[in-house]
Write a structure and sequence with these properties.
- The protein is mostly helical.
- The chain has one domain.
- Helices cover 75% and strands 0% of the residues.
- It is elongated, with a radius of gyration of 20 Å.
């Protein structure tokens, strides 16, 4: 049951992060969602787009992370980790991803304003010229979120495995009481 709970916690965390992230980026450049994404939701309302894309673009990240993290936390002979014990590391991962997204958005903005990064092709033609910098900021923020989420997720998984291995090497509390 804990395996499934860990997967569900990861899905919830990814979706919550996605919705909050998109609530911000949809207000920076709604065209990132209306022009840069397929018209699935039939609206240009930033709140609704952020909710829709926040779910659609992140649930699968939560599934991938959840299955890998649950395996790292539960399989094998080492002491098991519970879903509750993984909430803090997941919150740290989400905060780190948000910081990376913010930093990348700022860097993207600076580079786009300097003309060092530009939109090309269909996107450049369809996005209003005055929104190009904002579109790049959103693009960089979203790319950084995915990258930091995957790299950070791998780090969380590795740390969980290491914590389980270390816990398996520590003397049991009952042994300490007896000796």
């Amino acid at each position: 049951m804990q395996f499934v709970a860990i997967v569900l916690v990861c899905i919830f965390a990814a979706i919550a992060y996605g919705i909050l992230h998109d609530q911000i980026t949809a207000r920076i450049c709604v065209e990132y969602f209306t022009i840069g994404h397929p018209p699935i939701f039939g609206t240009d309302d930033p709140t609704l787009l952020a909710i829709g894309w926040g779910v659609l673009a992140t649930w699968w990240v939560g599934v991938i992370l959840g299955i890998a993290l649950a395996a790292a936390a539960r399989w094998g002979q080492w002491p098991k980790r519970s879903a509750v014990s993984l909430i803090r590391p997941l919150l740290v991962l989400m905060i780190c991803s948000a910081v990376c997204a913010l930093a990348a958005g700022i860097v993207g903005t600076i580079l786009a304003r300097a003309g060092l990064v530009t939109l090309m092709g269909r996107i450049a033609r369809e996005v209003p010229r005055e929104k190009h910098v904002a579109f790049v900021a959103d693009l960089w923020a979203h790319s950084a979120s995915y990258l930091s989420g995957f790299v950070g997720g791998a780090i969380v998984i590795a740390r969980v495995l290491m914590s389980r291995r270390l816990a398996s090497q520590a003397p049991a509390s009952s042994e300490l009481a007896e000796g």
